[in-house]
Predict the structure.
Amino acid sequence: MPESVEAMVADFAGAAVELAREFGVALDFSEGSLEGVERVLGTLHDDLQGGNAAVRSLDAAPAAPSSTDIDEMCKLWGSYFGEVVRRRWGGEWSVEQYPGRGFATLTLTVGGNKLFPSMKVYRRLTQGAQENLWEFYGQVRARLEAVPGTKVQ
C-alpha cells in the first residue's frame, strides 16, 4: 500500500500509462498525451452508454463495470491528468472534501487553485463529450498561466 497521497497518485498514473496501451495510446505525461486520454475516455463513455461495457484492467477478465470499477477508472485517469498538470506547474496532492458533497476525493492544489481530476473524469465518463478532458486542460492551462508566481517546470 502506498505510504503517501503522492505515492498513491504515482501508482494510479503509472497504471493509466500501462492500461492506455490496451487502447493503442502511448502516454508520456506530456500535454499532448491528454488528447490520447480524451480518446480513451470517449471510448469508455461510449461503452458505458451502450450497455456493453467491459472494464479493462491489468489483472482481471472483462466484466460489466460496477460503481467501484468506475471509481477506480476515475482515480486512475484523474491521477494521470493531475500528474500532467503537476509536472508542468508544480502543486501538491491531497485528499480533501469535494465542495458541497459528503465525500473526499483526490485534490491537486496549484497556485491557490484546487483541481479535482477524478471528478472531472467521472463527469466525462457519465456525461459525455461536453465534458471533454482535452478542452478542460486548455481552460486549466489558461488559468494557471495567468496566476502570478506559477511557473512552468
